[in-house]
Design a protein that fits this description.
alpha+beta; five-stranded antiparallel sheet; 12 strands; globular
Length: 436
């Protein structure tokens, strides 16, 4: 893993983002200028080719940067259900592991935040990063009493970097998304911005961890690491180190399918309970944010991106689930309208758009035999084909900002369950948490 100190120069970052904005903006303007000359499949093909080209430009530039530049790209890349499949595939490259920052830089950040030399704070502090990301990285360490801990450290000046980036990034992605949707960009951007700013405050993340630990105190299969308060600040978060089976090993042939099914059930119930019961959702579905235990338990990491769920949104989703369980598809357009999902007008989404998705979801909640994620090898392709077929209509679709991270989280976990090829009582769990 290559070590690289992040660029903190405002001018350097503005030049990079500005250059990218210029290239994307010119491409968008050129495409619009000649758009009238094409129609039908040819017009759609040209638009897709231009989108892929601009997505590649975004990945090339943002992939070299930390802070908001890389993080926003990662967040938006996870909304693959909203994107043409070719564009989603290119943006997914931003999910790859970020290069780590040299250990001496991170040691300096820890000592400055905790007002003491590393040797006085820890009995041992590992030089090599255990994990790295866009805003900070994790180092393993040992407390003076011998307890193993994980120390999450923000990159130097990352708060300033993020806030400086946001204004330029908004302009960049507004240009890019104008090629995808006629709907207002503000709801999407507002959610991404707010969640990103929350992730900068490790004090906020520590509060989330304590709250989640309290909520799941009576759920032994969900393990939340404990915060070490005296070694935590707004930019350093120290927590007990809770190891487990890493995802790449968990999905291997080393573990039985029965155990993978149990892990899948725990992950699914964790999400369903968060939405319908706790009204607090762990909204970063990256499988790397979880570790697995041989007793079927799951360790949950990274509580920076959490989504609080309003009563109206939880009630709206609950009504949709009940409608699916009771096979009342004709009610879906009006329920989505009530939830704030509609075509410009506002008018309900056409039934013919909804029906194919409804059929796929209905299959997932069957009872005999229980549905296995990944059993239909062509399911993902079917979803992408549906997305491509309905893309022109989705450009005219409106949705409330509150559902963005909810949908992102559930879509991500469906992918996780597919990776595990998990079979489980999905209908029973949904019925239990949405029953009036």
């Amino acid at each position: 893993m290559t070590e690289k100190k992040p660029t903190t120069s405002s001018l350097g970052r503005i030049v990079k983002i500005g250059s990218l904005m210029g290239r994307v903006g010119t491409s968008v303007a050129t495409e619009r200028a000649i758009d009238f000359a094409f129609s039908g499949p040819t017009k759609q093909l040209r638009r897709t080719e231009n989108l892929v080209k601009n997505a590649a430009r975004i990945v090339e530039t943002l992939g070299e940067m930390k802070g908001a530049a890389m993080k926003v790209g990662q967040m938006l890349s996870l909304h693959e259900s909203m994107l043409p499949p070719e564009v989603a595939e290119v943006l997914s490259l931003l999910q790859q592991k970020a290069p780590s920052v040299p250990s001496e830089v991170m040691r300096y950040e820890v000592e400055g935040a905790l007002k003491a030399p590393i040797g006085e704070l820890f009995a041992d502090f590992e030089e090599e990063a255990y994990a790295s990301a866009s805003i900070g990285q994790v180092h393993r360490a040992t407390l003076k009493d011998g307890s193993p801990v994980a120390v999450k450290i923000q990159y130097p000046a990352i708060d300033r970097i993020v806030k400086a980036d946001l204004k330029n990034l908004k302009r960049l992605f507004q240009s890019f998304f104008s090629m995808l949707f006629d709907a207002d960009f503000e709801p999407l951007w507002g959610e991404v911005r707010d969640r990103l700013l929350e992730e900068l405050d490790y004090t906020h993340e520590a509060e989330n961890m304590r709250l989640m630990a309290e909520l799941y105190a009576d759920v032994p299969e969900i393990v939340i690491p404990q915060v070490i308060d005296e070694l935590s600040t707004s930019n350093v978060l120290t927590m007990e180190f809770v190891g487990g089976i890493r995802p790449r090993d968990a999905i291997s042939d080393r573990y039985s399918q029965e155990l993978k099914n149990e892990w899948g059930r725990v992950l699914f119930e964790f999400q369903v309970r968060g939405l319908f019961h706790d009204r607090l959702l762990h909204a970063d579905p990256n499988l790397a944010n979880f570790a697995f235990l041989e007793d079927g338990g799951v360790v949950v990491y990274d509580f920076g991106c959490m989504k609080r769920i309003s009563d109206s949104i939880a009630t709206g989703y609950s009504a949709l689930v009940r409608t699916v369980l009771e096979d009342r598809r004709e009610d879906i357009p009006d329920q989505l309208l009530d939830l704030g999902v509609f075509m410009t007008g506002p008018v309900p989404i056409p039934q013919e758009v909804i029906d194919p998705y409804f059929d796929l979801i209905l299959e997932m909640v069957r009872e005999d035999p229980l549905y296995t994620f990944g059993e239909d090898e062509e399911l993902y392709e079917k979803i992408l084909e549906l997305g491509a077929a309905n893309w022109s209509q989705s450009m005219d679709m409106n949705f409330p900002e509150d559902i963005i991270f909810i949908d992102r989280s559930f879509a991500g976990h469906f992918g996780n369950l597919t990776t595990l090829r998990a079979q489980g009582p999905w209908r029973e769990l949904l019925d239990r948490y949405t029953r009036p």
